[in-house]
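Reproducibility note. Readers wishing to regenerate the assembly model reported in the main text can use the exact inputs given here. Chain order matters: entities are listed in the order in which they were concatenated for prediction.
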Amino acid sequence: MAKPLSADEVKGMRKQGISKTMALGSAIAVVVLVTLVALVMLGGVLTPTPTPTTPTPTIQWPEKLLGGGATFVNPLMQKWAYEFKQERGLFGVDYQSIGSGQGIAKLKEQAVDFAASDSPLKGSEWEELKNVRGGVIQMPITIGSVVAIFNIPGVDELKLSQEVLLKIFDGGIKKWNNPQLVELNPQLRNVDKDIVVVYRADRSGTTFVWTDFLEKVSGGKFPRDLSFKLPDEEADKARFIGAKGNEGVTEAVRNTQYSIGYVELSYATLSGLAHAMVQNKVGNFVKASMESVTEAVKSIIEHVKLPDPLDDWSTISLIKFEPSSSGAYPIVSFSYVMLYVENSPEKAAALHEFLTWVYQKGQKYVADVPGYIPLPDNAVQIGLKGVSYIKAT
Amino acid sequence: MAVVRKSIFIFLGSFALFLVLILPFYFFGELYGASEFFSKFSFLDFILGQEWSLPEQKYGALQAVYGTLMTAGLALLITTPISIAAAVAMSELLPEWLSERLGIIVDMIAAIPSVVIGLWGVLSLGPFLSNTLYRFLVENLGFLPIFQAKTLTAYNKLTAALMLGYMIMPFAVSVIKENLRLVPMEIKEAAYALGLTKWEVVRITLSYIKPGIFAALMLALGRAVAEAVAVSMVIGNTCSFSVSLLEPACTLTTLIINNFAEATGTEGAALIGLGLVLFVISISIVLVSRLIYNKFFGGYMR
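Running the prediction on these inputs yields the following structure tokens for the assembly.
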């Protein structure tokens, strides 16, 4: 039997009861936390530093290379980084997909060892960086291709001349049974529906490539930019839907009947949506594919003198060079990798090692990443030339 | 024990102080960003600018303001009856075990990340609505300007507003529920004693907590105005002044998150300007609601 409590004791418990347990609980929590933190910190101190087992090599490799930029090349970069580490095991490559613009910004701040971008440096930027660490090397790292995906029930083939494609995207052609469209595609004769145009709402390299093409076709009227220009008429605007990212556009086209949108080729392939054939310079209607895109780039490099990796690339547009080969798909572009000429000795060695590997052995992994296309030989030569400019200081 | 208690008190108190101390930092940050904006734009021209088009270097915020107010207002309109009804049902009508479980579910809705709700809007809600509700609206109520649409898509103001209404509902519900709980039992007992029906009693309690309902709805509106990720996924992102709810629009927040990652120079400054406009709108919502509150609800904040 417990001794009955005195009135004072009861009062004291009433006063303190709950707060006492709470205080105790909190105190225990604090102690546990502090111990944990201490343990973690101690752990860091106590872990023995690994003693080097291999004899020090003649070249000192950095722990890792830091890259950043275009989201488009990200899957490829991750694949390369992984395979490179597997094969060589010298150092890691950390690529962050932060967008082309941010990649270039980070390059300017010298916060990354290399950047990747869907568009080359602007003339002013190139000028600005010309005398920084020996200038910037720009070289093609992969090929991008933008296609028009569409969703018209019962129609899985669409032929578009460049003029018609422009008019669809600047709002000029409003209906699927427009005579200009029906002339190329008799199967659209009875599709009396408004065209829903899906564009990228976020600023993106994909839009840049697409508007580059529209600018070329329109003779400079349609502005080339990272953002898509909408038609001026309110009535036309209602047919234009902005979606985020290639995924967003793909999903919007899939969900919206009688729509058309533009995405990177890989998204069109993965989504299973049909994409349009576009008329090329020769006059053939060509669907984008690994073959037609490679052929386009190859033919351009054969016929056009591209600048040296140390030169200004800002005016270079594969679209404006128009491939003249018969099976070439006309809407193609380079993605670029950019780095400074002068680097610290270990970084220079690592950049040289990694990029050489990318241009030689790395190309065979490109086909493993769905929708990406290996560089043709003559583009690889440009890359290797660029790599040879890397200097250790 | 007293020492421990005191130290815990100080520890927690310092957190509150920290929140207050952060405020000046926030203002300085805002001013720093804004200085770049003010050096390039005049605020009045910016906020009254009719058109927003980055490729043409046109920076006018009015369309985005219109889109923001339309979607948030519409969301509020949708969520008001639903949240009041849900709160009343949960606290007055339903049996305890059911309303308790419902309450947990409603709280869980509040915890869903907005990007997940956005995905739900894009992948299932939107396509479903455009094939059912929107088709019905266009075919039967198409004579009203707000339901006119040339094309039926899932990407429009109504989808955004419905989704927003769903997102802000839990906040309104839980605040209204708390308010209902605070209604003195005596009032209800007196009402029942007078022989009033359940419905009449509910009406009396509701009129008793009017200020609370108003506060709850303003809280919800503030959230609706500020929501970005989910809205950008379903609103269609085409800036315009179109009246139709079934046509796309853009909002201040969607323009910011869509463009900020790749914006430099003037574009970046214009986006900061949009943030400033949003800030002004949010502040005025708070101020106006306080004003209304003081004027109509007896001038006290519970």
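We highlight two features of this model. Chain A touches chain B through 46 residues (CB under 8 Å). Chain A is about 45% helix and 15% strand.
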